[in-house]
Structure formats: structure tokens, C-alpha cells
Amino acid sequence: MSPNNKKKLALIRVKLDKLDNQLLSLVKKRTILVNDVLKLKEFKNEIVDKKRINLILKRIKLKSKKIKIDPKITNRIWKNMIWSYINYEKKNFKKK
Q1: Backbone dihedral angles phi then psi of residue 3, each to the nearest 5 degrees
Q2: How do residues 67-88 score in pLDDT, each as one tens digit?
Q3: Please, which residues have CB within 8 angstroms of residue 60's CB and are 6 or more apart in sequence?
């Protein structure tokens, strides 16, 4: 890699790191909301809502196409996020 390209790469990586920090902040906000939702659930079987999951994934696919992001990427990200939070909810569910 040329020295010029190394400099460009370093600058792009700084931008990526800043973006990662913003994403972490959003994940924290999402976690707070998930905790609020979890407090409302009375039974553990309320944690997985397949209808809602399918609706979310369909909406993300349409939005991804509209703003020209590969929907395979966003689908994988959202599926992982959804199932990670489902596991989080199951682990933190408290019977009432």
C-alpha cells in the first residue's frame, strides 16, 4: 500500500471509530428501552414476538433498498440485534 493510501486509510479508520462510538451510544439507548419493555412483560413466553420480528425485518429491508444499502447486510445486523436482545430479555426476565 502506498504511503498516500495508508494516510487515507488511517483517516477513514478514525471516522469509523467515531461512528462506532455513536453506535454504542445508540445501543445503550436501545438497551434502556428494552429494559422498559421487559418490565411490562408478565410471562417469559411474551419475549419472542415473531409477528413483530417479521414486521421489523420487512420494514428494514424496504428502507434499506430505498436508501441504497444492501438489504442482506441490514437484515443480518437486525436479526443479530433482535436475537441478542431476546437472549438478554430471557436472561433478565423476572417473574412477577
Answers
A1: -55, -35
A2: 999 999 999 999 999 999 999 9
A3: 71, 74, 75, 78
| Alpha carbons 38 and 35: distance in angstroms, whole number | 5
Its pTM surpasses 0.85: yes
C-alpha cell at 65: 433498498
Domains of the chain: 3-92 (1.20.59.10)
Closest CA to 56 of 64, 66, 44: 64
pLDDT bracket for residue 95 (50, 70, 90): low
User: Alpha helix locations (H) across the chain?
Assistant: 3-40, 50-66, 71-92
Give the residue among 36, 92, 86 at the shortest CA–CA distance from 56: 86
